[in-house]
Design a protein that fits this description.
381 residues; alpha/beta; TIM Barrel; eight-stranded parallel β-sheet; three-stranded antiparallel β-sheet; 11 strands
């Protein structure tokens, strides 16, 4: 009997593996599409759309799961799970171009999801000028301490600095615009006076704070409420077309959000919420290229839910926007009495998974550790 010897392949570089067996190099790149697989969940299709999609999938050797009553016509609509190789999915997309009921647009969406590119993860360094942030509240509250930490984050290799003057930890209360600006203005003035060119993000839910900080040169507004706290926020961003916006998911305001952790389907519910907010943003005039999404680790989620988000973060990228994850030193680590130095080690371990999977942005306290890790992973250290 022949002793068969095999291994499972886990690699992002399938072309190298194909070439290693002596495959024709002129056809290798094209052949990869036959060995790469993807599953899509497609929401709220009509019975007609679902039936056509399923038959189209079967026609190319792929498959599509639908509600059991689609075939009988008793279901009014159905979510669908479409799966196949990249080559099969491309064929499905091409065939959908000639189908009715708007399925041509679905084909275009499928094609766009298959065009993936790799990129370097950007590090957003955290500067809290607050008294009560969960990790470093009070450490940089004084102007000189804040400026010193700003310079340290830049020296350590941050790509962006995120400055916040309002704690949004669980059970925290809102801080008025006047008090936020009192702490933010000195830092922004220092940045301007010293010609510091690193992109500056302002962590605020308040549109007045956002507008005044934009006037002082802020490049990004990081709204942890995702426009829920202040309905004027998207209007302010639309009026400032060169400023990016981080739209984060949160189940409620920080003072009560941990009372709202029940989801019908965690990732689906978050994706639907973020999708509706991107539609609203674009309708109000915010440029799509200015949108960054954050599923909101710790904002109305249990420990188990936070880890599910980390494992499935690529699902949020399927909305077509860059995704940021901020898990640094948060309660999911289950280390409330440990020193920040130890929390940073476990933060780094979790973020290494995200970096390896090409997360767009990570928001962290310890920039130096993460910068060193990225350099090591890229062979630059």
């Amino acid at each position: 009997m022949h002793d068969f010897f095999l291994k499972k392949l886990y690699t992002n570089n399938l072309e190298t593996e194909i070439l290693s067996i002596g495959f024709d190099k002129n056809y290798a790149k094209q052949a990869c599409s036959k060995f790469e697989y993807q599953n899509f969940k497609i929401f709220d299709l009509t019975v007609a759309q679902a039936n056509i999609l399923k038959q189209t999938a079967l026609s190319v050797g792929a498959d599509c799961a639908t509600h059991k009553e689609v075939i009988t016509g008793k279901a009014q609509c159905s979510d669908c799970i479409l799966g196949g190789s990249f080559a099969q999915l491309n064929k499905i997309a091409q065939k959908l171009e000639f189908q009715p009921f708007g399925l041509k647009h679905l084909g275009e969406k499928i094609k766009s999801q298959l065009n993936t590119t790799t990129h370097k993860t950007k590090i957003m360094g955290i500067l809290n000028v607050t008294k009560d942030s969960f990790s470093d509240g009070g450490d940089f509250y004084d102007r000189e301490d804040g400026i010193k930490h700003l310079n340290q984050l830049i020296q350590d290799g941050a790509d962006i600095i995120d400055i916040g003057a309002e704690s949004t930890r669980p059970n925290s209360e809102a801080v008025c615009a006047k008090d936020q600006l009192e702490k933010l203005f000195p830092i922004l003035e220092y940045i301007n006076n010293n010609n510091i060119n690193i992109p500056i993000s302002i962590d605020t839910r308040n549109s007045e704070v956002a507008q005044k900080c934009i006037e002082l040169g802020a490049n990004i507004i990081n709204d942890v409420s995702g426009f829920d706290y202040d309905p004027q926020m998207p209007i302010v961003l639309a009026q400032n077309p060169n400023v990016k916006i981080v739209i984060q998911h949160s189940s409620a305001t920080p003072d009560v959000m941990q009372n709202y952790t029940n989801y019908e389907n965690l990732t689906d519910d978050i994706i639907k919420n973020l999708h509706s907010k991107t539609i609203k943003a674009i309708e109000l005039g915010i440029k799509p290229e200015n949108i960054i999404l954050d599923p909101g680790i710790g904002f109305g989620k249990t420990k188990e839910q936070n880890f599910e988000i980390i494992k499935r973060f690529k699902e949020f990228q399927s909305l077509g926007y860059p995704v940021m994850i901020g898990l640094s030193r948060k309660s999911l680590l289950n280390m409330p009495n440990k020193q920040n130095e130890e929390k940073d080690i476990y933060t780094l371990a979790l973020n290494s998974i995200l970096i390896n999977e090409n997360i767009d942005y990570i928001r962290v306290h310890n920039v130096k550790l993460h910068k060193n890790l990225i350099n090591i992973m890229e062979g630059n250290n």
